């Protein structure tokens, strides 16, 4: 009985859908988290990018490089500043320690987040589906009223258990399970998740921004990604074109996004570079990344800026604040 009550509570809010920006964690020049720009950041996402959902403390947010107390402070600030502005705030609570993950899950519930997500523990790893489900179940149980999402990112965790296999029977083990954030290029696995489990109304959130159109064709119900911080508007145009079945425009938008991502990938693209690009495009200072990551180079920033301009992602007006970061 309690089970049904709790899982129906978890489904009150409408499904997570559309674009979800994986938030960057702003830092000061001294490498401390910088909560002071989060209000501005929310307004920027909603007003300039048309993005109304966020995924906090994930890969892009350097979540695993932060202390537990920093993660709590950030989660709280995002929830507070997002109130009445954002549709949903999902907090990534994955950690190597089950205890820490549970504490973060409970905290997310206390502050009124809309959902939690968890990656597979990646140092001492689950050997198989059973191990992974057992871990995820214990985390989810610490926040029994919150929608729970599994965050699949095998290239970073090294845990390659197929999601299609994981979803088989998952709601019996994890009653709050609501979907998956799928950050991998295996469209066979992704497609089979949709094919076999869509009647359960799960959220199938794709996480490879440069390939989103292919995932939409496979049935993605939304997308979580780093580039929606600054290419959200363009990606929304692609979603709208797809929605009205104008595949040729949707493809033009996807190719335009690919031209940018392909360009930066060739220069070396990661969390640091993403931080620098967001500073450039939004004018909000994201600051440096935390070690072991190093700041993006001046050369990278200059080249990315020229490319953004040539593709029309950066207008003269956007540059007026010019918070350009340089390498030290
Ligand atoms: C590894 C990684 O950070 N993946 C992000 C989300 O999962 C994506 O948003 C990528 O940053 C993006 O697709 C560019 O490759
Ligand atoms: C991209 C993404 O979802 C993350 O940064 O966690």
Describe, in plain words, how this protein is organized in 3D:
- It is built from 14 helices and eight strands.
- The chain has helices at 2-10, 38-49, 68-82, 98-111, 129-141, 154-157, 163-167, 170-173, 187-197, 212-217, 232-243, 247-267, 271-282, 298-310, and strands at 18-22, 53-56, 88-92, 115-119, 148-152, 177-182, 203-206, 222-225.
- It has an eight-stranded parallel barrel, surrounded by five helices.
- Helix 3 packs parallel to helix 4 (98-111) and helix 13 crosses helix 14.
- It is globular, with a radius of gyration of 19 Å.
- Mean pLDDT is 94; it is low at 322-328.
- The structure holds 2-(acetylamino)-2-deoxy-D-mannose and pyruvic acid.
- 2-(acetylamino)-2-deoxy-D-mannose is lined by residues 22, 59-60, 153, 183, 207-210, 225-227, 261.
- Rg calc: 19 Å
The major β-sheet equals: 8 strands, parallel, barrel
- Side-by-side strand order of the widest sheet: 1-2-3-4-5-6-7-8
> Which blocks of ≥5 consecutive residues have pLDDT under 50?
322-328
Distance between the termini: 59 Å
Helix/strand/pairing category: alpha/beta
Using the alpha-carbon principal axes, give the shape. globular
Beta-strand content bin: 5-15%
Q: Could you estimate the helical fraction of the residues in percent? A: 40-55%
Number of helices: 14
Mean pLDDT across residues? 94
Number of strands: 8
Enumerate the distinct ligands: 2-(acetylamino)-2-deoxy-D-mannose, pyruvic acid
Order of helices and strands: HEHEHEHEHEHHHEHEHEHHHH
InterPro entries: Aldolase_TIM (IPR013785), DapA-like (IPR002220)
EC number: 4.1.3.3
Pfam family, one: DHDPS
Pathway: Amino-sugar metabolism; N-acetylneuraminate degradation
